[in-house]
Amino acid sequence: LTRNDWPEGIKWTKQREIVLTVLENLCDPQRAAEIYLTTERSGQTVCLSTVYRILELYVQRGLVNKLNIMNQDTAVYEFNRLKHKHYAVCMRCRKIITLESCPMNEFFQELGDNDFQILGHTLEVYGYCKDCRM
Ligand SMILES: [Zn+2]
Ligand SMILES: [Zn+2]
Fold it and tell me: Among 75, 92, 85, which Cα is nearest to 31's?
């Protein structure tokens, strides 16, 4: 992301660019505090309250999805790639893993056959991640 392909209608600031770049490079959704730490690790300084404000702006503009996942007390954020996704949540370390495929399609076929118009769905998977499984 550079200043040239900056989203229309949002005033450019260096801090906004830093936060959006971090979001773009995330593999899995993260909490605001984690996004803040990533900006800090990259040697940039954006204070935590600014990170929160920028995230809220991006959510309002539809650039970023804010997810409230079950058993998590804080919301997580991800860059909106306009592709629906599901998540697996570790109940011990609370890590969130993005699942690339949707297991529900066959099931929907069946519902569709039964004359139900589907607009969307949610699905969350929970359990223990690789590190917490023992
Ligand atoms: Zn875990
Ligand atoms: Zn799905």
Answer: 75
Task: Answer whether 85's CB lies under 8 Å from 100's CB.
Answer: yes
Residue 90, SS3?
strand
Separation of CA 85 and ligand 2 centre (Å): 6
- Whether this prediction's pTM lies above 0.90 is answered by no
Strand-pair category, 86-90 with 30-31: unpaired
Backbone angles phi, psi at 88, to 5 degrees: -110, 130
Question: What DSSP character marks residue 27?
Answer: S
User: Residue 3 — very low, low, confident or very high, per pLDDT cuts 50/70/90?
Assistant: low
Ligand 1 centroid from CA 89, angstroms: 8
The pLDDT tens digits for 71-90 are 778 899 998 876 777 889 99
CA of 100 to the centre of ligand 2 (A): 9
Dihedral pair phi/psi, residue 58, rounded to 5°: -65, -35
Average pLDDT score over the chain: 85
